[in-house]
Amino acid sequence: MINISRKRTQTRTFYLLFGIVLAVSLPLAFFAGWMADLSQIRPVLTQLGHAQPKVAAPPVSGSKEPPTGIPQLRATWGNSQVLLTWTRVAGAKTYTVYRSMGNLGYSHAQVIGQLSQSTSQIAFADFSLTPGRHYTYWVAAGNRAGLGPISQALSGRTFFSSSVIAHNAEKAAVWVQAQSWSQGGMGLLVPADHIQSALAFNIDHVLYTPLYLPPSISHSNWLTKRWIRWKNGNTRLGVLQSFHHLTLLQGLNSPKRPSLPLGHLNTDNVAVWRQRGHWQYKKFQRTIPTLPADAIVLNGYGQACAMTNASGPVIFLHPLSLSDQTSNR
Question: What's the pTM value of the predicted model, to 2 decimals?
Fold first, then answer.
């Protein structure tokens, strides 16, 4: 005899278990498929994520390397300033200026300025100098990538002040006398003399004086004997040469009497002369002004460049030559 109620119970249990298995397996299968798809999409998303910043980042402006050019320095000196100039360096945005005292090397240099100029000629003025001092400069061109090579050192000296130059000229000045003698009667009469005095400047260990005596004063003949003696106090001086109404005498070897070096005119010059017992001086640029007789002209370094003779014209002293170097005004 078959029990129908028990068979129905087994059938319901089977369908219940089948439904539970199906309800659990379907979500698990869907989740596994979703994870598999995500593993394939993730590398693509990662690549897009890395690529997006590269596309969105703006391009970097400026040079990738520092300038390779080296500034070629030139200098115009004054008594308390210097003007540095150089040609623009390709690729440079800025220029750094270094300075050291005296002839000290680059390791002792300090940065004194940084400028940005785009003109073909770059200029930098240093107004913080002391008269009569030595300085050394360097310049380096730079940009965002850094500084380029350092320039060659440029050394120089500022000019002395006008008062110092005038004082040195005073110390180099001495009085000289020209004593001319004339003895007539075939040398039998009492000789007569005539003394003239003038200032002389000790220049390059030679005394330059505007006192000029023409050759006729010392020219003797059969009837009259004539001669000239040059002296500084009791010291006899020999004549080296005469030109353009200037007389060059043997110099004095005395440490108390400094010797002025020879030189050329520059941008700062000083004229010095003695008038009515007092020393006078006048500063000027390149063009020599009208000067009194017996004046000396010195450049900014205190080097003797010219003198005026007793007639007034300016006589240039360097290079020393008998050629015509007068400036008749």
Answer: 0.71
